[in-house]
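Teaching note: in complex prediction, the entire set of molecules is handled at once rather than each chain in isolation. The prompt given to students was simply: 'Predict the structure of this complex.' The entities are:
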Amino acid sequence: MSQDGSGVDLETSVGYLLKEASSALRLAMEEVLRPFGMTVTHYACLELLAQRPGSSNSELARGAFVTRQSMNVLLQALEQDGYVTRAKEAPVGKALPTRLTSRGRRSLEMASAAVRSVEMRMMAGLTETERSNVAGILRSMVRSLRQSDDTP
Amino acid sequence: MSQDGSGVDLETSVGYLLKEASSALRLAMEEVLRPFGMTVTHYACLELLAQRPGSSNSELARGAFVTRQSMNVLLQALEQDGYVTRAKEAPVGKALPTRLTSRGRRSLEMASAAVRSVEMRMMAGLTETERSNVAGILRSMVRSLRQSDDTP
DNA sequence: TGTTGTATGTCAGAAGACTGACATGAGCAG
DNA sequence: CTGCTCATGTCAGTCTTCTGACATACAACA
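The expected output is the structure of the full assembly:
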């Protein structure tokens, strides 16, 4: 409708659509997490800790797709507010294992239900075949994008 | 592998995979745009203006998935650097039509080629059927997510 | 006419994330 | 053992984006 060969047609560009989808997802998640006073990264951190207890700051940062500096700031706040506990000494290296407190677990439980409802809504408009393909497609794109990304 | 019913399994969660994919795309785009001294939002703004000349600040903001306040800051910088021109008076309402300068067009041309190469790489790992399905899937997810999002 | 609602541009302050930098600890080659 | 590399934690400063707020402009309507 708007392209003649050069340039990127935003209407059909998968990159643009991907950005749009992630933006919509982010908005929807922020909306359901707001009642809990929780940001998306905040929630991601707790969810990661629930599935991988004892993760280090750097591991959590990678899992939440932020820098370890950003995750560090968040972890300090979460510890101060009693959602997580961090080992005072590193059992090995410098990595300090982090774990959820019972308060963190309770908080996560509610948030997780809210987030699940968003994901359900997101998948609701897809056909059965689409639903079974989407994960593989996204994983393939990630793999391709990282091809010559971390090999400079 | 890690879930028993409650919680969100990050390994298979489409929401998480979507976030991961958009993060990878963002990183890859930042990498190819850095040589041009251009951020992703910066590029998105120019690309939007190329396809929809005369767009207003608010229209550009919606197209780039940021707030109009953020886009306003960017536009002021772009105008000062000579990439765009903004009408001094609104022909109708308050919206100030914005257009690319020749410098902006030249700058976009190079950036656009770089971004296209990233998108090509992203699609490279997909099968023919996946390639023809991905746009529809993303659009469906966006539509579902916005269902009761802007109807509070 | 004037009132109400919606959309826009813009300023100011706050929050979140990033880059840069430094020190520490582990692993490995020599 | 020593030097090198890599990963980690953390502090500091900066940047980008967001939220909040206000004024303006048009449209719809009583």
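Point out the following to students. Chain A touches chain B through 61 residues (CB under 8 Å). The longest strand of chain A covers residues 84-86.
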